[in-house]
Amino acid sequence: MAPSELLSLASLSLLLALVVQPHEAYGSTRGSFLSNDGSAAVNGICATSVTIHGYKCQEHEVKTKDGYILSMQRIPERRFEGNSNAGIKKQPILIQHGVLVDGMTWLLNSPQQNLPMILADNGFDVWIANTRGTRFCRKHVSLDSAQAEFWNWSWDELVSFDLPAVFDFVFNQTQQKIHYIGHSLGTLIGLASFSEGHQADTLKSAAFLSPIAYLSHMNTALGMVAAKAFVGEITTWFGVAEFNPKGQKASAFLKRLCNYPGVDCYDLLTAITGKNCCLNFSTVDLFIKNEPQSTATKNMVHLAQTVRDGVIAKYNYGRPDYNRMHYGEAKPPVYNISAIPRNLPIFISYGGQDALSDVKDVLLLLDSLKFHDEDKLMVQFIKDYAHADFIMGTNAKDIVYNQVLRFFKNQQ
Ligand SMILES: *[C@@H]1O[C@H](CO)[C@@H](O)[C@H](O)[C@H]1NC(C)=O
Ligand SMILES: *[C@@H]1O[C@H](CO)[C@@H](O)[C@H](O)[C@H]1NC(C)=O
Ligand SMILES: *[C@@H]1O[C@H](CO)[C@@H](O)[C@H](O)[C@H]1NC(C)=O
Ligand SMILES: *[C@@H]1O[C@H](CO)[C@@H](O)[C@H](O)[C@H]1NC(C)=O
Fold it and tell me: What are the counts of helices (DSSP H) followed by strands (DSSP E) for the chain?
């Protein structure tokens, strides 16, 4: 494939973070090269992406309070660590990916360039989270992923169930407070969760890369049209289904959006995520082979609401009476980002070219943290970076990850 085609495909999957085909009801689908039958030990992320590089890696299963069984990977030590550090307790770090991808996206660049391995080589105990619905998280104590109920959730449930489950699991395993790193949706669920005090006893500090919180300034014509087109259709939609970005209807919907006046789909990657400066075509190729992953349609709806409404609130059922049924109020409750404990050490890194995490929206986020203890908030602005550079940029180590390391080492 030509590089431009690769980029178009990559951007398609990123675009789909914002669009949704409301009447879709796909059955259970499978990952491109793996089955979902629990063969993680053979074909999972550890085997395909970590141990091949000479790192130890453990597959774990974590059960959420609402019955989902999530897979996690742990890289417990440096490559070829040997016994010299035996018995030394390492600081655990939990890494949370964004929407429509899974934990593998962190591992696509070379070991010298990808975040989990850099953290492991610097002496951290690295835990990679995967959210419900993605390739290795399609199990549940009683539901099947072909059932509608399996997909009856939005990012509210990631806040109240997935994140607490993985935090508790890592804390129980390591008996230490945890550093958190989130990218994209992984930042939103972290911010929302910490604002509700969910991880008060297990969280040590948090790094937010390409933060998504407020979304109303998202500056791409395509993104705005996608969110609006979607919201236009929501009023008639109350179904519950898997959202499979690899499905035909998703592509058809994208084509329709590209016909809107003012929408330029010629360079999709730039149109959606902003002008990424520093991607490697080989990495983008791997990205296309492994992503995008399914999520719940309801989750996409919730994200579109966040774009439309300009507030960080719980899922809106679309009618005051439905909202009252779920929340006891006509409007969905708001997540109060200012309620994040003021002494929680926070690192935020954002890009000047990021079209999803627009600078104006990041400034709103920073404003909601304006009473945060000054010496506990570290902010990095990278003029040339766009959304995908933070996970796949070939120079992300020098520019971002070394700052993250420095931030964590300051908390020791
Ligand atoms: C989805 O969950 C809500 C409660 O949050 C419930 O009212 C609704 O009936 C569920 N729908 C399906 C299809 O499971
Ligand atoms: C905590 O860890 C212990 C030992 O590893 C295990 O037996 C126990 O079930 C765990 N508890 C939870 C809640 O995960
Ligand atoms: C891009 O990826 C390929 C394959 O992993 C690698 O050989 C090459 O060195 C990478 N280029 C850069 C600039 O990192
Ligand atoms: C949000 O939290 C802050 C800090 O706890 C508090 O001062 C403020 O009143 C809260 N705002 C709302 C709308 O509850």
Answer: 17, 11
Q: Mean of the per-residue pLDDT values for the chain?
A: 84
When divided into structural domains, the chain yields a total of: 1
Question: What single string gives the DSSP state of each residue in 56-107?
Answer: --EEEEEE-TTSEEEEEEEE-S-TT-TTTTTTPPPEEEEEE--TT--GGGGG
pLDDT at 261: 74
pLDDT of residue 232 exceeding 90, the answer is no
Which bound ligand lies closest to the C-alpha atom of 283? 3
* Rounded distance from Cα 208 to ligand 2 centre (Å): 29
Q: What separation in Å is there between the alpha carbon of 171 and the centre of ligand 2?
A: 10
Residue pLDDT, tens place only, 193-213: 999 999 989 999 999 999 998
Nearest ligand 1 atom to the CA of 240 is 13
User: Based on the number of CB atoms within 10 Å of its own CB, is 394 exposed (0-12), middle (13-18) or buried (19 or more)?
Assistant: middle
Other Cβ atoms within 10 Å of 114 Cβ, number: 24
Q: Is 367 a catalytic residue?
A: no
Three-state SS for 205?
strand
Most confident of 22-31, 135-144, 291-300, 308-317: 135-144
Find the CATH number of the domain harbouring 44. Answer: 3.40.50.1820
> Any idea of the CA torsion for 207, 303, 311, 219, to the nearest 10 degrees?
80
Active site annotation includes 53: no
- Known catalytic residue at 354: yes
Question: If you take atom 11 of ligand 2, which residue's CA is the nearest one?
Answer: 172
Is 80 exceeded by the pLDDT of residue 219? no
**Percent of the chain at pLDDT exceeding 70:** 81
320 Cα: distance to centroid of ligand 2 (angstroms) = 42
Token pair belonging to 226: 């996608």
- Given 102, 162, 354, 358, the catalytic residue: 354
Query: Can you tell me the distance from the alpha carbon of 27 to that of 222, in angstroms, rounded to the nearest whole number?
Result: 28
Q: Is the pTM of this model over 0.85?
A: yes
State the virtual CA torsion across 313, 221, 183, 44 in degrees, nearest 10.
110
Indicate which residue's Cα is closest to atom 4 of ligand 4: 339
Given the DSSP bridges, would you call strands 68-75 and 139-140 parallel, antiparallel or unpaired?
Answer: antiparallel
Instruction: Say yes or no: CB of residue 4 within 6 Å of ligand 3.
Output: no
The whole domain housing 320 covers 2-410
Residue 410, phi then psi, degrees to nearest 5: -65, -25
